[in-house]
UniProtKB/TrEMBL annotation:
Pfam families recorded: Na_H_Exchanger
Keyword list, A-Z: Antiport, Cell membrane, Ion transport, Membrane, Transmembrane, Transmembrane helix, Transport
Lineage: Bacteria, Pseudomonadati, Pseudomonadota, Alphaproteobacteria, Rhodospirillales
PANTHER family registered for this protein in UniProt: K(+)_H(+) ANTIPORTER NHAP2, NA(+)/H(+) ANTIPORTER 1
Protein name: Potassium/proton antiporter
Length: 608
C-alpha cells in the first residue's frame, strides 16, 4: 500500500513540478503531463506495467466530466451568447465533417474498412477542452473576444457529438448496434442522437438548477459548498447516462447554468474547482500515458503522420470554414480557429472504447490516436502564440498590473473589492469613479476615513468598494497603471481616439467622407456596433473609407466606451492566407470568373 501511494503521489508531484519547466520552454503543459506518464510506463524509466483499459476509461470519463463541469462553470453567459451559433455549428456539423474527411487517409493508408475508418475519424474529431482552456486562459494570450468565446464554447460542447459517433460506430462494428441492415441502422443512430442530446440537454438544465438551489438554500458550511456542487454534478452525469442521455452534455450545461447563476460563495467554488480540475487533468493524462507502449509506435507512425496531416491541414480547416461561413468571421479569424483544433485526452479516451468492446483493431485505434494527439499537442500547441500574433488575434493589454483584493459576502449580489491606488492610474489623475462604485472606506497614512469624507483618491490610498462581479474589470481599468504601448500597439488601436458620442456627420465632414444619409445621424459607437453585426469586443475594427474605426474599450455594460481612429487602414485584418473567403468574397470571385469566361458560341464577328 505504501509503495502504491508513493508511486501515485510521486507522479502527481512530478507532473506539478514539471509545470515550471513547461512555462520556461513554452511547451503545452498537458503534453508534459502525457510525457510524464510515458516515462513512468513499462517502456520508460519507471517500468510501471499498466494495461487495464476498462480502469483507464473509468478514470478518464470521471476526469472528463469534472473538466466539462468546470468549463461550463467558467463560461460566461455573455461569451456563450456571442459565440453560441458558430460554436455549436463547429461542435455538430464540424465534428461530422472532420469524421468523414479523416476517414479517407484511414481507409487508404491504414487499410481499414470504411466503417472502421469513420470510427477513427470520430475518435479524433473532437477538440480537447482541457488543452484549449489551458492555452487560452492560463497561457496568457489576450485574444479577440469573439474568437476566444467561439473556441471556448466549441471545445466544451463538441465532446458529446464525438462520443456519440464513436459509441454508435463501435456498436455497429461489434454487432451490438441496430440490426436490420445499414438503412435501419442509420435510422436507429439518428433516433439515438435525438434521444441522447435531448435527454442530456433537459437533464443538464434541471441539474444546473438543482445545484444552484442546493448550494443557496441548504446552508452548507463554506468548505462543503463546492463539494456539494461537484457531487451533484457527478450525479447529473451518471444519472443522465443511465437513462439514455448524454451525460457529458448534461454536466457541461449544468456547469454553464450554475456558473452564471447567483450562487453563494462563487469565488470559493471557482478556486476549489480550479484545483480539482487540474488534479483531474493530471490523473487523466498520467493514466493515458501509462496505458501507452512506445515500443509499439514505429509500425503505426507513417499512418499516424498521414492521419494527423489530413486532420490538421485539411479536415479541421475545411470543417471550420464551412461552419463559420454564414456568421461573418474574417479570414484571419477563421484561420486561427482552424489551427486551434488541438486533440487531447478526449480522443485518447475514446480510442479505448474499441479495446473495451473487443474490436479486432482495438489496440491499433489507441496507438494511432495517441500518436496523433502527441503530434497535435506538439505542433499546434507549441505554435499557438506565434500564429495568433501572425494573424492579428492578440489584443495588446492597455492596463498594467492592478493591486486588488476580493472579499466575498455570503448571500449578497456584490463583492467587497479593495484597491491600492497606484501613481499613474486614472483615479490618481483625477478621474471620478462611477456612481455605483463610491468608496465605502479609505485607508490613508494609517488612518481610516469614510468614503464620504474623501474628495479625491491619492496614490498610496487603499479604497474599499462594493461592486457587482461583472463590473470589477471596469474598476481594474480605473485603478491600474497604464501599460506602456509599443508602436505596434498604437497601430492596433489607431492613431488617436474619438468620443463614442461623436456624430458620423461630423466625422464625415472632418475627413471629407461620403456616407449614406441614414448613417449621418448615428453616433460613432452606434455606427460601429451596427456595422460589426455582433456584440463588439476590444480590437474589433470596421473600414471607413481609407480609414478604420476600432473598438478600444468597453464599459461595464459592454457598450463601446472608447473608439480609436486609424488614418490609414492597418494590416491587422489583412488576410494572411489565400483561403477561407467570406460569402461576399466568393461572390466577387465568381463574378470575375464569369466575366473572363467567353460566350458559349465563341466571340462574335463584326460585320464589315
Amino acid at each position: 500500500m505504501n509503495v502504491a501511494i508513493l508511486i501515485v503521489s510521486g507522479l502527481v508531484a512530478l507532473s506539478i513540478f514539471s509545470s515550471l519547466l513547461s512555462t520556461r520552454i513554452g511547451a503545452p503543459l498537458l503534453l508534459v503531463f502525457l510525457t510524464v506518464g510515458l516515462l513512468a510506463g513499462e517502456d520508460g524509466i519507471g517500468h510501471i506495467h499498466f494495461d487495464d483499459a476498462r480502469t483507464a476509461y473509468l478514470i478518464g470519463s470521471v476526469a472528463l466530466a469534472v473538466v466539462l463541469f468546470d468549463s461550463g462553470f467558467h463560461t460566461g453567459i455573455k461569451a456563450f451568447r456571442a459565440a453560441a451559433f458558430p460554436a455549436l455549428a463547429l461542435a455538430s456539423v464540424g465534428v461530422a465533417v472532420t469524421t468523414l474527411v479523416v476517414a479517407l487517409p484511414a481507409h487508404y493508408v491504414l487499410d481499414l474498412g470504411w466503417i472502421e475508418s469513420a470510427l477513427l475519424g470520430a475518435i479524433v474529431s473532437s477538440t480537447d477542452a482541457a488543452a484549449v482552456f489551458f492555452l487560452l486562459r492560463v497561457g496568457g494570450l489576450n485574444l479577440r473576444e469573439r474568437v476566444r468565446a467561439t473556441l471556448e464554447v466549441e471545445s466544451g460542447s463538441n465532446d458529446p457529438m464525438a462520443i456519440f459517433l464513436t459509441l454508435a460506430l463501435v456498436g455497429l462494428l461489434a454487432g451490438t448496434g441496430h440490426a436490420g441492415g445499414h438503412g435501419w441502422a442509420g435510422v436507429g443512430i439518428l433516433s439515438d442522437f435525438f434521444t441522447q442530446f435531448g435527454v442530456g440537454a433537459l437533464a443538464g438544465m434541471a441539474g444546473g438548477g438543482l445545484i444552484v438551489l442546493a448550494v443557496n438554500r441548504m446552508g452548507f458550511e463554506r468548505g462543503l459548498q463546492p463539494l456539494a456542487a461537484l457531487s451533484l454534478a457527478m450525479v447529473v452525469f451518471a444519472a443522465t447516462g443511465a437513462i439514455g442521455g448524454s451525460g457529458f452534455l448534461a454536466v457541461y450545461i449544468a456547469g454553464l447554468i450554475a456558473g452564471n447563476a447567483r450562487i453563494a460563495a462563487p469565488e470559493t467554488m471557482r478556486r476549489f474547482q480550479e484545483g480539482l480540475t487540474w488534479l483531474a487533468q493530471i490523473a487523466m493524462f498520467l493514466t493515458l500515458g501509462l496505458l501507452a507502449t512506445p515500443s509499439e509506435f514505429p509500425p503505426y507512425l507513417p499512418g499516424a503522420l498521414a492521419v494527423a496531416a489530413v486532420l490538421m491541414l485539411v479536415a479541421r480547416p475545411l470543417a471550420t470554414w464551412l461552419c463559420l461561413l454564414p456568421f461573418g468571421f474574417k479570414r484571419n479569424d477563421t484561420t486561427f480557429i482552424a489551427w486551434v483544433g488541438l486533440r487531447g485526452s478526449v480522443s485518447v479516451l475514446l480510442s479505448i472504447v474499441p479495446m473495451v468492446a473487443g474490436l479486432p483493431h482495438g489496440r491499433e485505434y489507441f496507438t494511432v490516436t495517441f500518436l496523433v494527439v502527441l503530434l497535435s499537442l506538439s505542433l499546434q500547441g507549441w505554435t499557438i502564440g506565434p500564429v495568433a500574433r501572425f494573424l492579428g488575434q492578440v489584443v495588446p493589454r492597455r492596463i498594467g498590473p492592478v493591486e486588488r483584493v476580493e472579499l466575498e459576502i455570503p448571500g449578497a449580489r456584490h463583492e467587497l473589492v479593495a484597491y491600492r491606488v497606484v501613481a499613474d492610474s486614472l483615479v490618481a489623475r483625477g478621474q471620478r469613479l462611477p456612481p455605483w462604485a463610491e468608496p465605502s472606506l479609505v485607508l490613508r497614512n494609517g488612518r481610516t476615513f469614510g468614503g464620504f469624507a474623501i474628495n479625491a483618491l491619492r496614490p498610496g490610498d487603499t479604497a474599499y468598494l462594493f461592486a457587482r462581479p461583472e463590473r470589477v474589470p471596469h474598476l481594474d481599468r480605473l485603478f491600474a497603471s497604464p501599460a506602456p504601448l509599443a508602436e505596434a500597439d498604437h497601430r492596433f488601436f489607431g492613431d488617436f481616439a474619438i468620443a463614442p458620442a461623436t456624430r458620423m456627420k461630423d466625422v464625415a465632414a472632418s475627413y471629407d467622407l461620403v456616407l449614406p444619409p441614414e448613417d449621418l445621424g448615428q453616433t460613432a459607437a452606434e455606427w460601429l456596433a451596427r456595422r460589426l453585426g455582433y456584440p463588439p469586443g476590444v480590437g474589433d475594427r470596421v473600414p471607413l473609407g481609407e480609414m478604420e474605426l476600432i473598438v478600444r474599450a468597453l464599459d461595464w455594460d459592454d457598450s463601446i466606451s472608447e473608439i480609436g481612429l486609424a488614418i490609414e487602414a492597418t494590416a491587422v485584418d489583412r488576410p494572411r492566407l489565400p483561403l477561407f473567403q467570406s460569402p461576399s468574397e466568393l461572390k466577387s470571385m465568381l463574378r470575375r470568373l464569369l466575366r473572363r469566361r467567353p460566350p458559349a458560341d465563341g466571340p462574335s464577328e463584326r460585320s464589315p
